[in-house]
Amino acid sequence: LPSADAALEEAVVEVIDHRPLEGQRPAGCQVTAAPVGSCATLVTERIAQGPPGVLDRLTAALLHGTILLDCVNLSPAAGKVTPRDVACVALLEERFPELPARDALFEALQAAKFDVSGLTTEQMLRKDLKVVHGGDLLLAISGIYVTLETFLQRPNLLQDLEAFCQARGYLGLVAMTISYSEQKEPCRQLAVYSQHHSLRSTVCQALEEATTPSLHLQPLPSPWPCLVAYTQGNNLASRKKVLPIVRAAL
What we know:
alpha/beta; Diaminopimelate Epimerase, Chain A, domain 1; globular; exopolyphosphatase activity
């Protein structure tokens, strides 16, 4: 839970997640954690095992769309989908054949997810935000849905990054951009921003030297010394795989 809700940790009775769990769970807390492409897959499996009335058409539509979006329309090239994700999509479509066609649904959801027109820089940074703790140190990791070149050209970006970090107590920020080719293959870039040289160097070194997985980073030109930019050769290394690298560095 976020630090502001830490007092509620003892009230957690069950965790379902597709990411590695942080910290210890309270005694008696049931945990379901598996490296599937979408957490909605684990939820679908749980609901499918329960009373038949729980899985109605609306619930099925929500789960179906979420799994397709998280797993990039079940495309193996994106490196996210697992057999359990595929099985749950098939199960939902079998029980509710009136669900929208996969391709049309995915294209509509993907277009909405990547539509950042009209958003301020602060809103783009908050749209898909994770925070990594290293003692009292906080580092933000934001998913950005435009190319890094486009992001760096936003007016007043440096001032906006500093204001965003100062307002929330972050000592730095990692912006992970993603875009997709027409073949649904991801293109990833990232930038490390901090006014603190030692933190910036520590995070950059950890990302450059990472081996589990290797990110295959190549430097890109940066307009400011406080921001280091890279293109990421390993396009299958999503933020879920980068988070542990940053956490270990902190």
